[in-house]
Specification:
The chain is mostly beta strands. It has helices spanning 4-24, 377-403, and strands spanning 41-45, 49-52, 58-66, 72-80, 85-90, 98-101, 105-115, 122-131, 138-147, 154-156, 160-163, 168-171, 177-185, 191-198, 204-209, 218-221, 226-234, 242-252, 255-265, 271-274, 281-285, 290-298, 304-312, 318-322, 325-329, 334-342, 350-359, 364-374. The protein folds into 4 domains: 4-25 and 378-403; 41-147, Immunoglobulins (Immunoglobulin-like, Sandwich), CATH 2.60.40.10; 154-265, Sandwich (Immunoglobulin-like), CATH 2.60.40; 271-374, Immunoglobulin-like. The two termini are 12 Å apart.
Length: 404
């Protein structure tokens, strides 16, 4: 008959072995939330390139982004001022030379520029410089202002007149453009004017009443009065950068007029990132680098310049990129980037998140990798040796108890 001591020993033995196995394997770790970097600061202009008629002022925001843990003071000034212009940086009330940007926040200044009354047509480039007092961040932003005369009504004939204050609109290829055109009837009776438009092949052009969403093909105007009509222009997604003319015409019996509008496409900016296999995970060991490759593809219609990389990682980890930056990627092209991830030497075994941010000229993309930190194989053998030793000791104990 088996003694109580033996029964108790048989009951405890499986639990004891299971505990040893858990001790020999790595303990799971809940990865901490990705912290903000110690310091990260950037500057951007709301509209880096604008087009205005002569004698019109320029006003836009200069935005400072602080994505770091520390508040930042930034000195800012206009380092390049074209001739025949005056310019300043200001808030709502004051001209300023520095700005305070709290941690994980953004602040704006207003850039204002006024041309001389004798300014000539052409492109004028301003430069705004900024830096922190310790020189850690030094930033610059160019702003190009193009002076171009307004186009009034074109090919006007007796009976009706077309005018528009802004005949040139500029934007990305995937944008939608809306012109405001005034139709001024010189007729002595109420008339219905038919509306016609001619543009590049594949473009969509529609007329709408002002402040309404429905499309129209004609317009009723009372004698010697005028109405405003909106011309909505949408280029195809495949449209390339360049200047495209759009002609509009109105007609009522013998009265007719034409005008030409211009759409300037700057191209679209888009980035796609991923891995060749589609996997976003890799294994690593404490203090040992692991490398994984990903691609950066330009999905826009304009060249994407100065592509840089940022990482958000657990504390004391290292993340390195090869190459560190990409000068330019043409539309449809892609580049390969290797990222080397080195866990902290004392990192516990478990799953961690390493996030990457790919910043293009006017587009950005995020990517997140799951890094599984594995225990060293030496520890696995040590664990096995401990288990074998414990089993041997228990076997000896059983034999001694069995002889009693």
């Amino acid at each position: 008959m088996i003694s109580r001591k033996k029964i108790r020993l048989f009951t405890i033995l499986p639990l004891f072995l299971a505990g040893l196995i858990c001790m020999a394997s790595a303990l799971p770790l809940n990865a901490e939330e990705t912290p903000l970097p110690d310091r990260m600061l950037s500057m951007a202009a709301e509209y880096p390139s604008v087009e205005i008629p002569p004698n019109e002022d320029v006003s836009m925001d200069i935005i400072f982004y602080n994505k770091g843990k520390s508040d930042e003071n930034v000195d800012v000034w206009i380092s390049r001022l074209p001739e025949m212009w005056t310019a300043k940086l200001k808030t709502y009330r004051y001209a300023v030379a520095a700005i305070h940007v709290p941690s994980d926040d953004n602040k704006t200044l207003t850039f204002e520029a006024t041309p001389d009354e004798n300014i000539q047509e052409g492109a004028y480039t301003f430069r705004i410089d900024a830096k922190t007092p310790d020189g850690r961040f030094q930033m610059a932003q160019d702003i190009t202002v193009t002076i171009k005369k307004k186009k009034e009504g074109v090919k006007e004939t007796k009976g009706v007149k077309l005018t528009t204050s802004y005949p040139v609109l500029k934007g990305p290829s995937d944008g939608e453009f809306e012109f405001s055109v005034e139709v001024d009837s010189k007729l002595e009776e109420d008339s219905i004017f038919d509306l016609f438009a001619e543009g590049p092949e594949g473009w969509t052009i529609n007329f709408k009443p002002a402040y309404e969403s429905k499309f129209i093909s004609s317009l009723r105007i009372k004698a010697n009065q005028s109405q405003t009509v909106a011309v909505q222009v949408k280029p195809p997604a495949s449209a390339q950068e360049g200047e495209y003319p759009v002609k509009i015409r109105v007609a009522a019996n013998d009265a007719k007029a034409e005008a030409e509008l211009d759409v300037v496409l700057t191209g679209t900016y888009g980035i796609e990132v991923g891995t060749a296999s589609g996997l976003l995970s890799l294994d690593a060991r404490q203090g040992k680098p692991s490398t994984i490759s990903f691609y950066v593809k330009n999905t826009g219609s304009a060249v994407n310049n100065q592509i840089s990389f940022m990482s958000f990682k657990p504390e004391n980890w290292k993340v390195e990129f090869e190459p560190e930056t990409i000068d330019a990627i043409a539309p449809g092209d892609l580049k390969q980037v290797d990222v080397k991830i080195t866990p902290y030497e004392e990192a516990l075994v478990g799953d961690y998140s390493v996030s990457l941010k790919i910043n293009g000229e006017k587009a950005s993309k995020d990517m997140e990798f799951r890094v599984s930190v594995k225990a060293s194989s030496a520890w696995a053998w040590i664990g096995i040796a401990i288990i074998v030793l414990v089993i041997a000791v228990l076997t000896i104990i059983f034999r001694k108890l069995g002889r009693r």
